[in-house]
Amino acid sequence: MTISRNTLLAQAAESVGFDLSEEIRIGGNYTPAIVHAGTAFVSGQVPRIGSAVAVTGRVGAEVTLAQAQHAARICCVRTLAILRDALGGLDAIAQALRMTVYVQSAADFTQQSEVADAASELLHQVLGAAGRHARTSVGVMQLPKGAAVEVDLIVAVDS
Predict the structure, then answer these.
(1) 42: which of 13, 79, 124, 156 fits an S-S bond (Cβ 3.0–4.6 Å)?
(2) Domain extents for the chain?
(3) Which residues of 129-148 are buried (b: 16+ CB within 10 A; e: fewer)?
């Protein structure tokens, strides 16, 4: 028996302490996802749980690699929850195309790709082979609300 993607998302959300029944708050004049011509674009997501950003600070200074990986998982859960809502379920995803992971990094921190690995692994865990994607991980000086990590995602949608 195959476990549905929506069930796998629920399990992943529970593992990071994210409540999928909560509304995903968006602060600003933009939409969390746009679906156009068979492609869905998800706006950057920080590791917000409820009204609080769960992991803040500079990775390699006040934030450990493990904490940053946890933040990346929360961000990825949020992107998938947004897609679930925008598409009426995760089964509409044909293929993950590209993920960008931004890491608020200390000057000497060089493990951005290891932070991003946590999000990539979660995406594959939920979507299976359709979760394979191209990826960029970038060290940045600052992120919104002091977040340690931000993730955006682009997926192909079944028509």
Answers:
(1) 79
(2) 43-157
(3) ebbebebebebeeebeeebb
pLDDT tens string 35-92: 999 999 999 999 999 999 999 999 999 999 999 999 999 999 999 999 999 999 999 9
pLDDT at 27: 77
Q: Which distant-in-sequence residues (6+ apart) come within 8 Å of 73 by Cβ?
A: 12, 15, 16, 118, 119, 122
Question: Which residues, listed in sequence order, are joined to residue 100 by a DSSP beta bridge?
Answer: 136, 152
Q: How far is 124 from 105, CA to CA, in rounded Å?
A: 25
Structure tokens at 68: 């940053």
CATH superfamily, with its number, for domain 43-157: RutC-like (3.30.1330.40)
C-alpha 115/C-alpha 138 separation (Å) is: 10
Distances in whole angstroms, Cα of residue 29 to Cα of each of 26, 43, 56, 81, 108: 9, 12, 23, 20, 35
- pLDDT for the residue 64: 98
> How far is the C-alpha of 106 from the C-alpha of 50, rounded, in Å?
27
Classify the phi-psi angles of 60: left when phi > 0, otherwise alpha if psi is within -120 to 50, otherwise beta. Answer: left
